[in-house]
Amino acid sequence: MGAIRVMPELLIGQIAAGEVVERPASVLKELLENSLDAGAAEIQVALEAGGARRVQVDDDGAGIPRDELALALARHATSKIASLADLESVATMGFRGEALASMAAVARVEIVSRPRDAAHAWSVTAEGGAAREARPAARAPGSTVAVADLYFNTPARRKFLRAEATEFGHCDEAFRRIALAHPSIAFTLRHNGRVSSHLAPQSAAARAAALLGNAFAAASVAVDASAGALRLHGLAGTPQAARNRADAQYFYVNGRYVRDRLLAHAVREAYRDTLHGERQPAFALFLELDPRAVDVNVHPAKTEVRFRDARGVHQFVFHALSRALSPTAAEAPVSYAAFASQGPAIQAALAMREPAPAAWPAAAPAPATLPAAEKAPPLGYALAQLHGVYVLAQNEAGLVLVDMHAAHERILMEKMKAALDRGGLERQSLLVPAVLRAEALDVATAEENREALETLGLELSVAGPNELAVRAAPAQLSGGDVAGLARALLAELREFGAARVLAARRNELLATMACHAAVRANRALSVPEMNALLREMEETERSGSCNHGRPTWYQLTLADLDKLFLRGR
Ligand SMILES: Nc1ncnc2c1ncn2[C@@H]1O[C@H](COP(=O)(O)OP(=O)(O)OP(=O)(O)O)[C@@H](O)[C@H]1O
Ligand SMILES: [Mg+2]
């Protein structure tokens, strides 16, 4: 070890650059953010060799006056904040005054810029350090910033650059993250001279469709909720838009793309019981709040944030998203059904829905065919049961196919959820107690968790050293598999304990209960029973998919059927 020395400025810059300029995509992100801060309406990106050879961003923003050009490249020089108070309420993407300086330390940087009121442009360059003398140049008002030969003077870092296609992929993603949040700005992305993306100014929904695909747009619901100074808006993919990879998850805080654990958790919770297994939701969500309520100065790339009221933000995002994701069947987007393209008829019908009658499986009076005068309910009237598994119904648009077990499961789950929220499930005494064989540990579990079991609608008593008797069961379960349910609940309680079962594992638990309680396949249903099921679906939140995320019903329109039979109309 040598003596302690102050580092030369260039070395400081090169070390700092490691944090901000990780790869070409981070250069692109910083340049794009500068253009946004400059109020650009049109931004053009040109990349060469995945951005490693050149990242260039052109904008029509405010420009930089000649006498500030050298400063723009200097460390700790910014036009965006001047005080701690400014920092605490910062509304621009940049504020540290180090992005361009960091790039200048590890690449060849050129800025050509012209403020709107300047007679012509000026250009300045920097290669591994401070800026050279500014020279007159030609361009329209706005700025062009080019960052070439990244890491030309730091070979060790250059080795970490990946293949051109990989680096381009990262740049493309950085571009997408910014373009998605600024639909009113026009963007062009070129790679090696070829246009790979061109986006005209458009609505937020159109921009999302352009960047995330029409399939996402068709299978997502709009979110727009406010509470005080908090607002969440954007698009949330339904279970049908879910993917195998978490590659379409865009969350923004005040226009800034973030990857935040708190927000990720709130989103995961909101999607929890609608997604099947490991499926990943797709979404583009924008949280807006008072800039003073969030600290963005916690991460070099500013992708993490800290909320002053973390709990409040979590609650708000969770509830806003849950609400948006839980339309009743009657309001569910037609994209819940696969044959979504011919939706208007059913949607028109949905708009006219009437309150649903009687509770399942009580008989509800319903004609087998559509009465002409009355408004038909959205899911129509039952025609028949197919192989003991599916319910066929006729509605205004055509044929409705329902997976009766899956649908019933969802209905029960939502009912039980609501009941638990009110304090507990309603219990119904059994005329003949159901007896089940139980191990000593089960008997002990039943005694220890009497209260939790009662909350869940079960009353158990010890019938013998190896026997338990179910004396009361959840009212929802009438006719279901009472002993099986008791066994499943005891297993849960044994493994996780009452507190966790009722809180963290609540939805898993309710899904298990619903599964035991729901009508089994092969049970013959009468037409009134089937109609009651349809009416309940119309009233139930999230009834478009079962507790495991599979769809519960499909619409086959007359047009679909005509197509099937090659029948022209
Ligand atoms: N495209 C641009 N148009 C107009 N001014 C720009 C542009 N790019 C940079 N500037 C000016 O140069 C300054 C330095 O930019 P730089 O990105 O280094 O820092 P910053 O944006 O202020 O903060 P941060 O380091 O957080 O990005 C900015 O404050 C801004 O005044
Ligand atoms: Mg910046």
Report on this model:
By secondary structure, the protein is an alpha+beta fold. Helix content is 35%, strand content 23%. The protein has 20 helices and 22 strands. An eight-stranded mixed beta sheet has the order 5-4-3-6-2-1-7-8, covered by helices on one side. A hairpin with a 2-residue loop joins strand 11 (249-253) and strand 12 (256-257). Helix 13 crosses helix 19 (527-539) and helix 16 (482-496) packs antiparallel against helix 18. The chain is elongated, with a radius of gyration of 30 Å. Residues 30, 33-34, 94, 99 line the site of magnesium ion. Adenosine-5'-triphosphate is lined by residues 30, 34-35, 38, 59, 61-64, 72, 78-80, 94-101, 143, 145.
Describe this protein with a few key phrases:
single chain; 569 residues; alpha+beta; 22 strands; elongated; binds adenosine-5'-triphosphate
Summarize the structure.
The chain is built from 20 helices and 22 strands. By secondary structure, the protein is of the alpha+beta class. α7 packs antiparallel against α8 (204-212), α14 (440-448) packs across α16 and α16 runs antiparallel to α18.
